[in-house]
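Lab meeting, item 3. Inverse folding demo.
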């Protein structure tokens, strides 16, 4: 009787080792791709928005990205139902039409995310890519504050210190950029530093509130993350079209929805629409600490590339501020120190783990810089 389980375990051992090796490779591959994606998105938006000639409408790009995300979520749900159109239609009808009150709750984050996406284009068009990348990390601060206020979450001492460090680092970067504002405006007559700074701050505030609000909705519902993103995508597309009509309606009616679109613009839209999928892969095969490293390293990459692509000048103040932001991102992603007995620590960790995974899966299709 004892030989049976032992032989089975011996047979499963090679397969388990092979799976572990494959997961390790996927972890580092996904982290590397996430770094490239984060840095390339900021740099590519900055590039296409500062090129001379016909400039595409940011509102149309936001709508196109929402449509692509919506289609992708629908395809994932279709695959989950093993390509059964009938079952997929039934799930969509139940989640969207039958539970319409639940669906209407997502109108608020959809409106905020649509506004946030448009603000990101405004901010990147008026700020150096490296400055935007550093300043946009303020969303960690706003998300933490809204989590404490709305979800009654508790932060460790290290996390509070990291938030103060983050704020100080961003302030130093902005002081440095304020000194160089005249030079940057001389190089780009169509750029307005104040407009870009206001846009990125509002974007950080909206990102923090919408993310926490959406997390609160997810925790109180049994619907899947992909179904929730379908509901978000529907509202996002409709609200994006309303914003397009309000802001650029006459111009788009005259020039066309795809006016100014080039191959590079399509690359930006696809990058923005599907880049969030990488977060789910990173969370599945890596962890939040490594994801923090990837975010920090992407700041370094975008700064270095900005020096070569856009003539960005890095001085001592910017280096100190960016270093503080990178350190703050890493410190905030460190796990909390266990408090109390080991049993209490393990139980709290097990209860917190699904929430963390759920939040990271949720982030997979939310707008990200």
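The presenter then showed the designed sequence:
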């Amino acid at each position: 009787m004892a030989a049976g389980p032992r032989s089975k375990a011996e047979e499963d051992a090679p397969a388990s080792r092979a799976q572990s090796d494959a997961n390790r490779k996927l972890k580092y591959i996904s982290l590397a791709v996430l770094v490239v994606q984060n840095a390339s998105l900021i740099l590519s938006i900055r590039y296409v928005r500062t090129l001379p000639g016909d400039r595409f409408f940011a509102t149309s790009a936001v709508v196109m990205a929402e449509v692509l995300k919506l289609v992708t979520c629908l395809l994932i749900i279709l695959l989950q139902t093993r390509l059964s159109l009938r079952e997929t239609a039934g799930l969509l009808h139940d989640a969207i039409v039958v539970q319409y009150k639940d669906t209407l709750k997502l109108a608020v984050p959809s409106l905020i995310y649509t506004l946030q996406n448009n603000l990101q284009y405004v901010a990147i068009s008026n700020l150096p890519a490296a400055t935007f990348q550093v300043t946009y990390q303020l969303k960690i601060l706003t998300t933490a504050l809204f989590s404490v206020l709305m979800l009654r979450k508790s932060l460790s001492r290290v996390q509070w210190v990291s938030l103060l460090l983050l704020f100080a680092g961003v302030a130093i970067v902005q002081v440095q950029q304020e000194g160089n504002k005249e030079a940057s405006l001389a190089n780009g007559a169509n750029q307005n530093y104040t407009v870009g700074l206001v846009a990125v701050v509002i974007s950080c505030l909206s990102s923090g509130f919408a993310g926490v609000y959406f997390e609160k909705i997810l925790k109180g519902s049994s619907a899947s993350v992909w179904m929730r993103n379908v509901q978000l995508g529907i509202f996002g597309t409709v609200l994006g079209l309303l914003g397009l009509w309000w802001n650029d309606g006459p111009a788009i009616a005259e020039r066309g929805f795809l006016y100014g679109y080039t191959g590079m613009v399509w690359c930006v839209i696809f990058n923005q629409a599907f880049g969030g999928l990488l977060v789910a892969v990173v969370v599945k095969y890596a962890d939040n600490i490594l994801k923090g490293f990837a975010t920090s390293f992407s700041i370094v990459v975008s700064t270095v590339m900005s020096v070569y692509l856009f003539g960005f000048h890095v001085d001592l103040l910017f280096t100190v501020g960016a270093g503080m932001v990178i350190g703050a991102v890493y410190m905030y992603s460190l796990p909390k120190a266990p408090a109390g007995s080991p049993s209490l620590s393990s139980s709290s960790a097990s209860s917190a783990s699904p929430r963390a995974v759920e939040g990271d899966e949720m982030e997979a299709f939310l707008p990200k810089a």
